[in-house]
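On clarity, I found the account of how folds are encoded harder to follow than it need be. Since the whole study asks how a given chain folds, the encoding of that fold should be made plain. For illustration, here is how one protein appears when written out as sequence plus structure tokens:

:::
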Amino acid sequence: MDITNLEVGERINALRKRRGYSREKLSELADISVQFLADIEKGRKSMTIPTLRRIAAALNVTTDFIVNGTEENTDNSHIITMLSSLSERQKAYAEKLLAVFAEAISKEE
């Protein structure tokens, strides 16, 4: 068993539990089978980059955190991760909402 796969699996498992997700819920969010997720968490299998991205988006963390255990050096990484999981249409809505929010709070100051 590759230690890197084991470390990655342990991080995914810990994040899943911290988020309060069952394996079934996370596998649904990441569009993978429950058995494949279990194999990843136990370090028995590795995953493709697209699968890694889906798992990271579902857990609302960066892929760097899953692979290396470190966050990017930006306070906005969690926002970027959330946005990356949205469709283009959803991103357009999020941008409009953010513009309205920014305008509203700027009027308060």
Notes: The domain at 3-108 is CATH 1.10.260.40 (434 Repressor (Amino-terminal Domain)).
